[in-house]
Design brief:
Distance between the termini: 94 Å
Radius of gyration: 25 Å
Shape: globular
Largest sheet: 4 strands, mixed
Number of domains: 1
Number of helices: 20
Structural class: alpha+beta
Helix content: 40-55%
CATH class: Mainly Alpha
C-alpha cells in the first residue's frame, strides 16, 4: 500500500466528520432563518426533532387541536414539520383573506407529491399558464350551462335511490355517494355514461382515488419518502405508480373517445361540455391546450369534480341523520315545494331555503377540503401590521376557520339558522370552496349537485346513525371518515 493511499484512508474519517458537521450547521442555519421569518407569529412550542407533527395530525383530534389554537394564537401561527420544515397556519378570516386574495401559487412542498397523479393542471399550475388555462375553462362552468345539468344530477340520484330500496343493513354512504358523483360528473363534463353505480365490484377509478390519496398522505408524513429515488423503491411507491397508471388510462380513454366522436358527429348536434372546451378552446394567440395539458386537466377534474362533492354530500347526510329535527324540517319543506314532482328544475332547487341552510352548516363543520396552501411570492401585509415574508409557505385550515370561536357563536353546534337572512353576520368567514382568484372553479357545479341530491334522498328516505360505527373524521386530502360513514336508510312509503 502506497504512502498516498494510506494518507487518503486516514483523511476519509476526517472528511466524513467535516461533511456531517457542515450538514448540521446548514440545518441550524436554515432553522434560524425560519425562526427569524416567524418571529412575529407565536405558536405551539415544537419538539426539536419532529416539530408539531405528533400533536397536529390529520385525524379528528389533530384538526380540533388546530381549531383550539385558532383561539389561542390570533390570526396565524407556525407549524413545524421537523427541525427545518415550517409553514404558517392561517386560522382567522382577516389573515385568511390576506393569504388567499392574491394569485400566489400552491405550496410546492405540499402539492408536488400529487404531480405524478394529476400533473400540472389547474390545481397545481401557476403564473401565466394557470391564468391562461383558468380563462379557457371558466366558460364551462357558467350558470346557464350548470342549469342544464340539473336533470342529469337527478337521474343519477334516482339510480342511488333504487339501489337503497333493497338495503336491509347500514350503508357505507361515502362509497355510494362517490359512485353517484362520479357517474353524474362523467355524464355532465365528459359526456360519458359509465354505469359505475351498478357495478358489483368497486369501480377501478374510485378505488384508485382512494388508494392514491392514502398513499400521498402516508408519503407526506414520512420525510424519508419525500425523495423520489427512495420512494419508488418502496412497496407504497410501486403501488402509487401502478395506481397513477390506472387513473391515466381512464382519462386517456375519455379523451380518445371524444376525439373519435368529433370525426362522426354533426356540428351543433349537442351542447358543448367541459371536455369539448378542453379540446377546442383557443387563447388570444390562437393556441389551444397540448395533449399533456388536456390529460392533466381531465385528471385534475376527475379528482376535484367528484371526490370533494362526495365528501360534502356524505357529511351533510350524516348531520341530517344525527339531527333528526333538522331532517324532518327539510323533508317538510321539500314536500311543500316539490311534492311528488319528478322533473326537478333549476327553479325548484332555489326554493328550498332551509335545506340549503342545512347544507351550508354541514359544510361549515365539515369542509370537503379541510386545508389549502400557498407560497408567498411577495411580502404579504396583514391588517394587524404584521408581515408574512416572501417565500414563506402558508396553509389555511378551513376546518379551524369554520370553528373559530372568535367568529362563530358556539362553533361546535350544528345550527342551520346561522345562514338565515337575519343571521348572516359570519357569512364572510364561510369559505368551503376557498376565496380569491384561485378559488374552486367548479363550486357552482358542486353546490347545484348537492342541492339536487340531498332533497331527493331526504324526500324518499329517513336517515339515522349506526351507533355501532360512529364516524371518525380525518383529513385525507379531502375530509373522509377513517372507519367509513355508515347510515341506516329506511324507505318512506
Amino acid at each position: 500500500m502506497t504512502t498516498l493511499t494510506i494518507t487518503i484512508l486516514k483523511l476519509v474519517p476526517v472528511v466524513g466528520i467535516v461533511f456531517i458537521l457542515y450538514k448540521i450547521w446548514k440545518i441550524i442555519e436554515r432553522r434560524q432563518e425560519y425562526k427569524r421569518q416567524m418571529k412575529d407569529f407565536p405558536g405551539p412550542p415544537p419538539h426539536w426533532l419532529w416539530g408539531n407533527t405528533k400533536e397536529l395530525t390529520g385525524d379528528y383530534e389533530g384538526m380540533l387541536r388546530v381549531a383550539d389554537y385558532a383561539a389561542q394564537y390570533h390570526g396565524a401561527f407556525p407549524v413545524w414539520m421537523g427541525p427545518t420544515d415550517v409553514f404558517l397556519m392561517a386560522v382567522h378570516p382577516t389573515t385568511v383573506r390576506s393569504v388567499l386574495s392574491g394569485s400566489d401559487p400552491k405550496d410546492e412542498f405540499s402539492y408536488a407529491l400529487m404531480r405524478p397523479w394529476i400533473g400540472d393542471g389547474l390545481l397545481l399550475s401557476k403564473g401565466r399558464k394557470w391564468d391562461r388555462n383558468r380563462r379557457l375553462m371558466t366558460p364551462a362552468f357558467h350558470q346557464e350551462i350548470i342549469k342544464n345539468y340539473v336533470k342529469t344530477f337527478a337521474s343519477s340520484t334516482e339510480i342511488l335511490l333504487d339501489k337503497w330500496r333493497t338495503v336491509n343493513e347500514p350503508v357505507e354512504t361515502f362509497h355510494h355517494v362517490s359512485l353517484l358523483t362520479l357517474d353524474s360528473m362523467m355524464k355532465c363534463l365528459f359526456g360519458h355514461v359509465s354505469d359505475c353505480q351498478n357495478e358489483k365490484v368497486r369501480h377501478p377509478y374510485i378505488q384508485g382515488v382512494y388508494d392514491v390519496s392514502e398513499l400521498i398522505v402516508k408519503r407526506i408524513i414520512n420525510p424519508l419518502c419525500h425523495s423520489a429515488f427512495i420512494y419508488y423503491k418502496t412497496k407504497n411507491g410501486k403501488r402509487f405508480k401502478e395506481v397513477c397508471d390506472i387513473i391515466h388510462q381512464h382519462s386517456q380513454k375519455l379523451i380518445r373517445n371524444r376525439r373519435q366522436l368529433f370525426k362522426t358527429e354533426e356540428r351543433g348536434a349537442r351542447q358543448p361540455d367541459f371536455l369539448d372546451i378542453l379540446l377546442t378552446a383557443k387563447d388570444s394567440e390562437g393556441n389551444g391546450l397540448t395533449d399533456q395539458e388536456i390529460r392533466d386537466e381531465v385528471d385534475t377534474f376527475m379528482f376535484e369534480g367528484h371526490d370533494s362533492t362526495a365528501s360534502s354530500l356524505s357529511w351533510c347526510l350524516y348531520n341530517l341523520a344525527k339531527f333528526s329535527e333538522c331532517q324532518e324540517r327539510c323533508r317538510e319543506e321539500i314536500k311543500e315545494h316539490w311534492g311528488n314532482k319528478e322533473d326537478i328544475t333549476w327553479d325548484d332547487v332555489k326554493k328550498l331555503k332551509y335545506t340549503h341552510m342545512c347544507i351550508k352548516e354541514s359544510m361549515r363543520l365539515y369542509p370537503p377540503v379541510p386545508n389549502v396552501s400557498r407560497c408567498a411570492e411577495n411580502d404579504i401585509s396583514l391588517p394587524d401590521g404584521r408581515v408574512i415574508p416572501k417565500g414563506v409557505r402558508m396553509a389555511v385550515s378551513l376546518f379551524a376557520l369554520h370553528r373559530n370561536p372568535e367568529v362563530w357563536h358556539e362553533p361546535e353546534e350544528f345550527d342551520p339558522q346561522r345562514f338565515s337572512d337575519e343571521n348572516m353576520t359570519s357569512s364572510s368567514s364561510y369559505m368551503p370552496f376557498s376565496i380569491g382568484p384561485r378559488n374552486c372553479i367548479g363550486q357552482l357545479f358542486a353546490t347545484t349537485q348537492i342541492r339536487v341530491v340531498i332533497p331527493m334522498i331526504i324526500r324518499k328516505y329517513n336517515l339515522t346513525l349506526d351507533p355501532s360505527r360512529p364516524a371518525q373524521p380525518e383529513s385525507m386530502l379531502i375530509l373522509r371518515s377513517k372507519n367509513g360513514l355508515y347510515l341506516n336508510v329506511k324507505y318512506i312509503q
